[in-house]
């Protein structure tokens, strides 16, 4: 099955920068009617202006999605604007890079809130509208942008891994539940991506394993893969070589991958005794 995006009403979270912004730009070029959301209203306004200048349709609703009332307002705005909601793209996310022993309960809860409860509660809020979209034969979908951290445990990213594993589990459960409504639930798992602004993406940057943030995958490539997953209705996609390798390696060679992860963590510990 391929999904038609022209004229579809799509809500994109995390659209102020990074992967979410690039996803929104691509969806607009394909003729989708967008509601874009994030907290930074200026960045959203510049995105909407550039989409409209190119002949696309987009509305911005600035919101802190950890607030239930603001979440409700975003979804209501999408439905009010276009009369229907066909696709929810959960792209908003944060990360914490650092060891569990030196982290805090507050960091853990913030990461779980943005990466897990926000997409989960947005899905709940959107579900009746997606059912209506299905009844009208408009091929509704939820796409969750998780991470390979949702399939593999990576040292120095404990909160991130926990939040993305939770999102992957929810995605799989809902995929089965929503099938009877004809709502597709899709999952994309990028590896390390070069952030537009690492200091805003990471709420903590003290990790003790080597991660090549500068040489990471360009967000444009990830955005292309996200849009391809939506148009081709791909249930699960690991994006980039490292992500694919980990995704495949964990199935084919789980002991080997555990050994590599342990070695990664031990190497730094030995160096910084
Ligand atoms: N970067 C990576 O290495 C990587 C790897 C794998 C997966 N991912 C996932 O891909 C997604 C996008 O990552 P990215 O690299 O594009 O990150 P990014 O550039 O930091 O963008 C994150 C987006 O989420 C929004 N956001 C954060 N907290 C929010 C809140 N409380 N309410 C509403 N919006 C909020 C941000 O907007 P405001 O700050 O304006 O609110 C921003 O638009 C995330 O889910 C991330 O976990 C990233």
How does this structure look, described?
By secondary structure, this protein is an alpha/beta fold. The protein has a single domain (9-271), classed as Rossmann fold (3-Layer(aba) Sandwich). Helix content is 51%, strand content 16%. β1 (9-13), α1 and β2 (33-38) form a beta-alpha-beta unit. α4 packs parallel to α5 (158-178). Bound molecules: NADP nicotinamide-adenine-dinucleotide phosphate. Residues 14-20, 38-40, 64-66, 91-95, 114-115, 145, 147, 190, 192-193, 195-196, 200-201, 216, 219 line the site of NADP nicotinamide-adenine-dinucleotide phosphate (NAP).
Helix-strand blueprint:
Layout: E1 9-13, H1 18-29, E2 33-38, H2 41-53, E3 57-62, H3 68-82, E4 87-90, E5 95-97, H4 105-135, E6 141-145, H5 158-178, E7 184-190, H6 198-201, E8 202-205, H7 219-232, E9 236-239, H8 241-252, H9 254-271
Parallel strand pairs: 1-2, 1-4, 2-3, 4-6, 5-8, 6-7, 7-9
Helix pairs in contact: 1-7, 3-4, 4-5, 8-9
């Amino acid at each position: 099955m391929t999904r038609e995006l022209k004229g579809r009403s799509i809500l994109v979270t995390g659209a102020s920068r990074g992967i979410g912004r690039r996803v929104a730009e691509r969806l607009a070029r394909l003729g989708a009617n967008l509601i874009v959301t994030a907290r930074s209203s200026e960045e959203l306004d510049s995105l909407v202006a550039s989409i409209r200048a190119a002949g696309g349709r987009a509305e911005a609703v600035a919101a802190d999605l950890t607030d239930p009332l603001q979440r409700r307002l975003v979804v209501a705005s999408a439905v009010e604007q276009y009369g229907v909601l066909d696709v929810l793209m959960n792209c908003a996310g944060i990360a914490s890079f650092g060891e569990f022993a030196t982290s805090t309960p507050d960091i853990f809860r913030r990461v779980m809130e943005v990466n897990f409860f926000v997409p989960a509660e947005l899905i709940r809020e959107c579900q009746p509208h997606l059912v209506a979209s299905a009844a009208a034969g408009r091929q509704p979908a939820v796409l969750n942008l998780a991470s390979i951290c949702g399939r593999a445990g990576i040292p120095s990213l404990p909160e991130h891994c926990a939040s993305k594993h939770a999102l992957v589990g929810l995605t799989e459960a809902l995929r089965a539940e929503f099938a009877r409504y004809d709502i597709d639930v899709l999952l994309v798992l990028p590896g390390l991506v070069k952030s537009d602004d690492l200091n805003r993406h990471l709420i903590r940057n003290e990790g003790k394993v080597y991660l090549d943030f500068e040489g990471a995958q360009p967000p444009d490539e990830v955005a292309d893969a996200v849009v391809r997953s939506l148009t081709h209705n791909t249930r699960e996609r690991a994006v980039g070589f490292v992500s694919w390798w980990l995704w495949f390696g964990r199935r084919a060679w789980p002991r080997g991958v555990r050994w590599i992860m342990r070695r990664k963590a031990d190497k730094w510990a030995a160096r910084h005794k």
